[in-house]
C-alpha cells in the first residue's frame, strides 16, 4: 500500500480546488485524470525508492 507524501497530498488538494471551480466538463475530466497521474507517479516513486533501498542493503553485492 502506498502512502501519499506531503507534496502529493498538497498537489491533490490544489487540483481538487481547481476542479471545483471549473464549469466545463472537459476541464473537470482533465483534472480528474491529472489526479490519477499524480497518484500513479507517487506510487512509482515509492516503489523505486524501496527498490533502491533493497539493492543498497543487499549484502551479497558488497
Description:
By secondary structure, the protein is mainly α. The chain is 77% helix and 0% strand. The protein is elongated and about 60 Å long. The chain starts with 5 loop residues before the first helix and ends in a 6-residue tail after the last helix.
Short description:
By secondary structure, this protein is mainly alpha-helical. It is built from 2 helices and no strands. Helices cover 77% and strands 0% of the residues.
Number of strands: 0
Average residue pLDDT: 91
Low-confidence stretches: none
Beta-strand share of residues: under 5%
Order of helices and strands: HH
Q: Kindly state the percentage of residues in helix.
A: over 70%
* Overall spatial form: elongated
Quick one: biggest sheet?
A: none
Amino acid at each position: 500500500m502506498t502512502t501519499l507524501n506531503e507534496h502529493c497530498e498538497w498537489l491533490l488538494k490544489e487540483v481538487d480546488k481547481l476542479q471545483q471551480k471549473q464549469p466545463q466538463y472537459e476541464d473537470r475530466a482533465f483534472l480528474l485524470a491529472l489526479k490519477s497521474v499524480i497518484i500513479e507517479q507517487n506510487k512509482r516513486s515509492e516503489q523505486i525508492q524501496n527498490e533502491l533501498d533493497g539493492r543498497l542493503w543487499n549484502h551479497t553485492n558488497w
